[in-house]
Amino acid sequence: MLATGRDKITRRQVGENVWLTGGVAEGIEHQAQPLAYEVLDSEGAVGRAQFEELQRAALEKEGDLVIILLGGRGAQALYRILGSKAQTNEIDQLLNRLHVFTQDALGPMRMDNGLSFVRDFERLLGEDFFRKVKSFTPMQTDTQDLEGELVRYLGKLDSLGGIDIFFLGLGPEAAAASHLAYIKPGSGAAAGDLAGVIPISSSILEHHIKKFKIGGSKVTEEDEAECRRASYILTLGPAAILGARRIVQSIVDASTAPGKRQSYRRLLETEISTDPAAQAAQLDENPGLWLRLHGNVRSLILPDVLEA
After folding, report:
1. Which of 57, 89, 278, 286 places its Cα 20 to 30 Å from the Cα of 293?
2. Domain ranges (residues) in the chain
3. Among positive and negative, which fits the CA dihedral 289, 241, 68, 149?
4. Which residues face 38 on adjacent strands?
5. What phi, psi does 134 have (nearest 5°)?
């Protein structure tokens, strides 16, 4: 469970980064462990494995399921499966139990901007999927009160009992570091931080726009101009990741993002310190390592991730 009532959340500022703190992970020591991984032969196989995770969770738990969608390439094969099946009644019982959330967003920005993660999810998953799921809660970005909206978002997530499956990727950073969601190196994220509002650089915006255009998103000149004016990235934080019941990571695009190979190898090979201060420094310098502190992770990769 997450502690996310307004009276339970505190605002913590590290440089220009704002973190909303109040997770149960705060003050709890997490045991670092090796990351086991599975090498699958195709992006489609990764999508099928992710779909099996949803089916397994539905069998193991009564009632509703809360999932966090992954943006970018890592879950597109899963979304094609879900979108196709949503056009029939094959998995209606599963879809009717799903509460769907997003893990990051650019803001301030209109929710219907073609460069928003929400529009991309709608394009990939289709109208039938969103019509059939029990609820869909994106991070609200068409506001100047991004922090207030993020607190409300966390409140709904908490009211549903926390995260059952957190679909995650791995973003490459300089010096073979990495980010999870948009927890960036040097942003000061700590174990108790549920979510953050992080200043965005022009280079990240440029990468985001290019990636969406290549992916087939319909983008108008107005959409692109507004996206370039975005100032912040909203992201779930380490407490949300550590508090999830299950993490399913996927890396399927090392051929087009070769930096992920070095970042993933460093994630596998880093010896995480047992000294609290030293460990905190490691996690801030390489936030991908937060994954190594979670006890229930399935990491799905393609063979090219392990290439030198």
Report:
1. 57
2. 10-306
3. negative
4. 300
5. -70, -40
| Strands 171-172, 178-179: pairing kind | antiparallel
For the chain, 308 residues long, give each residue's pLDDT as a single digit of tens.
Answer: 444 444 589 999 999 999 999 855 544 567 899 999 999 999 999 999 999 999 999 999 999 999 999 998 899 999 999 999 999 999 999 999 999 999 999 999 999 999 998 998 999 999 999 999 999 999 999 999 999 999 999 999 999 999 999 999 999 999 999 999 999 999 999 999 999 999 998 878 887 888 787 777 788 999 999 999 999 999 999 999 999 999 999 999 999 899 999 999 999 999 999 999 999 999 999 999 999 999 999 999 999 999 97
Closest listed residue to residue 236, CA positions, set 61, 42, 7, 69: 69
**Of the candidates 84, 82, 267, the residue with the CA atom closest to the CA atom of residue 168:** 267
Fold of 10-306: Rossmann fold (3.40.50)
Q: Whose CA is closest to 194, among 103, 98, 298? A: 103
Q: What is the pTM of this model?
A: 0.93
